[in-house]
Task: structure prediction
Amino acid sequence: MATWNVFLRGGAVDREHERGVDEATDELADRRAAVAELGAELRALVETAVRSEVAPDELRHVAKEARRLTDRLGERQRAVTEVATVDDLASRVRMYNPVIGDGHPVAPPIDFIHDGDEVTGHFTLGAMHEGPPFCSHGGMSALFLDQALGHAAATVGAPGVTTDLQVRYVRPVPLGVPLRIWSKVTEVSGNRTWVKGMITTAAEPDTALVESEGRFMRLSRAQLERIFPDLVGKRVSPGSVHD
Result:
């Protein structure tokens, strides 16, 4: 009887633990969904704002409303040295990443598809990404390629930080046109990984608009602690830091 009671009690404890995990998971999923919803609306707002030609008085009215909303969001903020509660570095979940983050106000965002040592993504840019008239800013292309190349390195089990990035601008990157980004690992040696990639239109995936090559370095524990001291003691492995 004693053994049976212990078994039942153990089962009850396990079920309580499972419920706690489920509740935490549900709460995290709900927060991530809310962050993504706000991110989508902010992207729509930014794109609308940079294309708006409404009267100055209306712009000032909207600015006043924006200040009010900023105050509401600022009631509870994390420090810049804190990881967002919706993020998971080990699983590469970065909700506020400027390339892949659903919560970022100017991210496309790009959803990368991993296939062996290659990574592919599709996205469309708007006026908020403009550099030359009607074309994307060159810095945006470098940003997106840096992310894509880093994802490819992580895909083959060699995640790391960027040490070199070369970008060649072949043709202008148009706004409002479906685009394709691609990257592939070309070499892995020790803690270094070499990757190449390019941006094209989705309609012409073999015609490069921008080409890139990069080198990535997997951090040692000592390097992680020296470069990212605020992550020390937070159970973050060197392989988790690669964006």
